[in-house]
Amino acid sequence: MSDYLNFKHESGFSQEQFDRLMDQYPGQFTEHLVLGKLIERWAKRFEMDKMQYSMLGEGHVEGFINGLRHVKDYLQQGDFMPGESMHESLAGDESKKLDEYEFKHV
């Protein structure tokens, strides 16, 4: 299990916050760390196989890889845990959920 806890702390995520989340939500937060590791493996696989997806265009593949890594970071920083930023935003007013987090074509 210690392998799942071995990740870089991103800026703004302290050891104290990590310890607090492990104390308050050990099972749930560990699951988020495990999912983060899985998502990072997916991102690495896409990086290694970029040529296989070349028909999508370089920018689209890079964007997808970056998106995977953003989700991984949110999970490993505890942002989806109760009381944290993403959890509170998504658990709030139902009418605002889709408006705030709708993916828009750029």
Topology:
Layout: H1 15-24, H2 26-48, H3 58-76, H4 85-91, H5 94-101
Helix pairs in contact: 1-2, 2-3
Describe the structure.
There is one protein chain. By secondary structure, the protein is mostly helical. It has a domain at 21-82. 63% of the residues lie in helices and 0% in strands. Helix 1 packs across helix 2 (26-48) and helix 2 runs antiparallel to helix 3.
Largest sheet composition? none
Strand content: under 5%
Output the helix-strand order: HHHHH
Mean pLDDT: 77
Number of strands: 0
Task: Provide a compact summary of the structure.
This protein has 5 helices and no strands.
Features of the shown structure:
106 residues; disordered C terminus; 63% helix; 5 helices; mainly alpha
